[in-house]
Design brief:
Radius of gyration: 33 Å
Number of domains: 2
Number of strands: 0
Shape: extended
Oligomer: single chain
Length: 292
């Protein structure tokens, strides 16, 4: 019996495989790449325009601010002469300076404490995950932005006209400005809390206040304390200048020394301010580490 001839096809003679059909992901990627190629000239024009606007704003700001490096260079000898008159400090009025320094610290303490009392309920009403009345959140956010936008010294100047000269006006200035900043930071912290504990507590049938007490408050407490301590640090530094507008504290003595060009007296005041601010910063950092 004759054998049938066996034919083996060479590898090169095999028919080419049909390409795989494109998946939806491949089609979407190709469309996005095509859109990017089409939008590239437009993006280049927009970026160039934005760069040109930024440069124009920078040049206009430089001219408006009347930047004159030559004037600074001419004033350096005068600054050097004043520097030589700073040392040694004049400690003859140290008791009154210490009282004024404590007054500045007290303004920051009471002002920050009042802000905490007002900012805490405001933050609950503003935060999207805790507010009982969502329609009220937007007007309150506008109010907080207004309080944050007005500087502490401007508030203090306003309250000097209302309640008269003294530290009470400084306390009110610190409290009003800090309330806006503190409530906003509190609300942002509350909104970033994980939702699982809140949902779990609500599933047990607890009301809104119990949910806040057992789910929101324990999680948010370390962050709230950290924010409060940070703003207290800031208020200690900003309270120094409140005396310049008549709101009490060491700032008034600082202004008097500058007007009289009494640099030995000024050196004592600056030394006290440096010691106060450094001590508060160290204490606040220590407390924040312990709570975290």
């Amino acid at each position: 019996m004759s054998k049938l001839p066996q034919h083996s096809a060479a590898a090169g003679d095999r028919p080419p495989r049909s390409p795989l059909p494109a998946t939806p992901c491949d089609i979407e990627a190709r469309l996005q790449a095509q859109l990017r190629r089409q939008n590239r000239p437009r993006q280049l024009v927009l970026r160039s325009l934005a760069l040109a606007i930024a440069v124009a704003i920078l040049i206009a700001s430089w001219r408006t601010a009347e930047i004159e490096p030559g004037e600074l260079w001419q004033g350096l000898p005068r600054l050097a002469a004043w520097t030589t008159r700073i040392w040694p400090p004049d400690f003859s009025e140290l008791p009154s300076f210490l009282w004024a320094t404590w007054e500045t610290l007290a303004i920051a303490i009471i002002g920050t404490g009042l802000a905490m009392l007002v900012a805490s309920p405001l933050a609950i009403l503003v935060a999207r995950n805790t507010t009982p009345w969502p329609w009220l959140a937007t007007p309150l956010r506008i109010l907080l932005n207004l309080l944050r936008g007005i500087d502490t010294a401007i508030f203090a100047l306003f309250f000097v006209a209302v309640v008269g000269l003294g530290p009470f006006a400084g306390v009110l200035g610190v409290a009003f400005h800090t309330t806006g900043s503190m409530a906003k930071l509190y609300a942002e912290l509350i909104e970033t809390l994980p939702a699982e504990p809140i949902v779990a507590i609500e599933a047990t049938g607890s009301d809104r206040w119990r949910t806040f007490a057992f789910a929101v408050w324990p999680e948010a407490l370390p962050g709230l304390i950290s924010i409060s301590l940070y703003l207290w640090e800031f208020n200690v530094r900003s309270s120094v200048i409140l005396g310049i507008v008549g709101a009490g504290g060491i700032g008034y003595e600082l202004l008097v020394s500058l007007k009289l060009l009494d640099f030995a007296r000024l050196a004592t005041i600056l030394l006290l301010i440096l010691l106060m601010v450094s001590g508060i910063d160290a204490l606040s950092a220590t407390l924040r580490r312990r709570w975290q």
